[in-house]
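Exercise 7 asks you to align residues with tokens for two separate proteins.
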Amino acid sequence: MEHIKNSRAAKNKKKPCHQFQSSGACTYGESCRFGHQRQTSPHSPAPAINDETPLQNIDQATIEPMDEFFARYPNFQYKRDASFWAEFHRLSKQSKWKKDQRREHVADFKTAITHQFNNTFGTDETSLESWQKLCRILGVGVPNTLKESRLRVQRTHVNLVDLVESPQTGKKAKLFPTVEALREYTLEERKVFPREEAHAGGLLKMLLRQIFYNHKKTRAEQPTRKRVDSGVDLGTCFVPEGSTQSV
């Protein structure tokens, strides 16, 4: 009899709401047909997906924008717990894209990583839960107020790509002591977050505005702009003192 009850309970258990797990909030509220359970750890890797499993056979609650991006290339064995940029560079090398082709794929990749940020942290710059999640992922404590949560994020030097990758790879984003240290890392790793992206939500736009606010005023003092073959302008990696760092 107990076995029957357990079977029924397992059958009736709701699948997790991906939107709620990503941002701590759900558009549908209590009427949502999925369960609202928080993830146990902010740095737990995303559920594993076998490289050979077709995307349509994967539980929809586990599919992320980056999964959808790499699923466009069926001959590429995407490592879901690896760095997004590392996987993109590996894809580019395997595909042997020409310069113009690579530029087109880079544009699609930047759109996907922007959607990944929106899915993970939300889009509302006035959401306390979104800022608290940023604080939690960064490991800087979780304040109870919106103002203090914003301040802690703004005072942190972190690569935005590392920050977005963290929940999926399970690796904590590295925090840097200075802007210069972050800039050197960003240039070396070529992890540059798109400065202007049409799909960026309000939260991401606010972070990017903070990052680049003083860039124009200090542009003359910065080194000559550098470019890499990925088509990403590394000159945009500059982040002013006191702001969250760019990738």
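Second protein for Exercise 7:
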Amino acid sequence: MGKIKITVLYQSGNGAEWDSPRDKRQDEADYPVEEYLENCGMVHTVSPGKSFKFVTPYFGDWQYPNGIHCNWTFLGHSTCHPSITCDDVDLRDNPECETEYLEIIDGLGGAQRYCGKMKDVSGIKSSRGGRDLFVTLQTMNGTFDREYAGFLCEVRCNDGKVALKDEFPSKHKEDLRCICGYQNKDDRIVGGENTTMNEFPWMAAIVNKGTRSPRCGAAIINDRWVLTAAHCFVLTKLGADQIDVLFHAHTLDMTLREYHADTALGEIGSIRGSGYNLDIVTDSDEKTLRVEVAEVINHPLFNAKYDYDVALLRLSHKIDFSVANAPIPICLPEPGLYQETFQGTVPTVAGWGLPHQDAGGSTRILQKLEVPIIDAQKCQELMPTTLTQRMMCAGFETGGKDACMGDSGGPLSLKDPKTKQWTQIGVVSWGEGCARKGRPGIYSRLTELVQWVYKNTETAKWCRKK
């Protein structure tokens, strides 16, 4: 008889059946624990009619082994708020579930750990209006024998009855000394205008290492992390050791393509963008803060259609927001605002990208442009490819003004007229050319992605909102 393979996670709703070999000793199991671990770290989108089950190794056959660390991510959908229900949880009991546990968190402060024998793990859902859930199984190291069955849990779409609570101290920390999203008082974008020095103090430039030549834009969101676009790294295979992040930068060097210095702006090969003939500026000239990057985390579901186009850069050291000339992080949307369209608003995009789609080099001076939000249905009519719920449109149907190549990863931000604070609502993602008639810019919609951002930056310090 052929080998029966248990996978760590089973998807229902497609006619598949979940099989588990029964009545076997651990040393007779049909699969090694390494095979189980290969499926750890997977990300799954839950939608109506599709559910998932996850289990401890050898569930139903033998006790689970020591030294297991496995995690799963379950992402919701516009019509699905996932919840988790488990058969009786039977794990090794330990004080405060510190060393062995089943953990369910939402990245928003809601969390619960289970250990020992539990019978009330039913209908667990995200807190604060969120919908994504992140699960971890941790078992203790050691050589002792086990007498615990483990668990089998199911994730499905329904309105869970029990929201996660902050049952143990949240890893999220708020720095009460700083406030996010405030501009300094000193008061590649096509058709944009120059910014003043440090006008957007959260703005960051991702540059080739040791240079001032921009690759993409970004924004600082807390004391350790910068938010940008995944395609800046996935499609170019760019690594953390190849880049620096610059804060308090205004005039950069030009990143060149095929160019002709003597052509007028708008002609093929022109490098006559704003500041093209200025003297070279150094980090010390602008009091630029240059920081190395320790890690790049691309959204695991990013694909060739630019869906889930967000990435996080972990800086090599923490930023002290209390020192002179320090950047100021931008605010992020509150969780649970999935229905917010921002219709009727005119946010601002900034970057050092090409001044024209045929330009021979990037714009040297940071540009800004106000771009009205375009209704999702109208935008879909304009664009030739299908837009997902993680995408939003902004720009001008008549063309002439837009973000362009090199602006990728930069923030699309909206100013609250009452508090005067800026919130990042999008990330520059893609478009058909630049500033073409009937082809607006496409941005990653942060209201759909903010839970993933919070989960992956959980040890950082955040500046508070007013």
